[in-house]
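job 3f2a | input accepted
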Amino acid sequence: MRRVIRPAEEEMGGVITTVLFSVVWYSALCGTIFRGGFQITLLLFLVAGLLPLCQAVNIARRAFFYRKQRADAIALGDRRNGRIVGITRQDVPYYSSDDHGRLRYRRYYFLEVEMTDPDTGISSRIQSQGYRRPIHRYLGSNRVTVYTDRSGWKHYLEDFQWKEHRSDPDIFDYPREFEEVHLGSGRVTQIIFVVILILMVLNVFLQS
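job 3f2a | predicted structure (208 res):
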């Protein structure tokens, strides 16, 4: 099955949802202004709509920055065949911005990859960037291609071989975990989230 699972630093989760919400938000505002004219109280709503847009732009800029670094490393052509030999899981603490600065934990999965220098035959082991999703559960083979950037210390994994079916056996016999699905993280939940936001915004502004 065809999949694209990016490292956490290259993800743009929630950007499309935020942009759609902003479109609906400003469409509703424009409709209100068209019907009743501009009122000073609407200025607050006009400014408030910029906050999620700014956040979405920042997320997109960050993702494109790291995606360009990957593209540059691939274009450089320093590639080697690699073999995934293990997975490391880390729960990284962070302070939530939407929960009064509460300390929370975000789980990342790192692939341990062994690669061999074709000139010297010397093997070395590197660690991938962190993935939010348990990428090893979707792999049908432990073979990957490893690209290295000009600095020689940052590596990028490409050419993953995915499972044909989700029920196919895992390449590693690690105990399974419950995979949490957060609102907005999947296609179905994103659609539900957008519909709820649209209905809420329309309900507020159509009554004004």
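job 3f2a | The longest strand covers residues 79-95.
job 3f2a | closed
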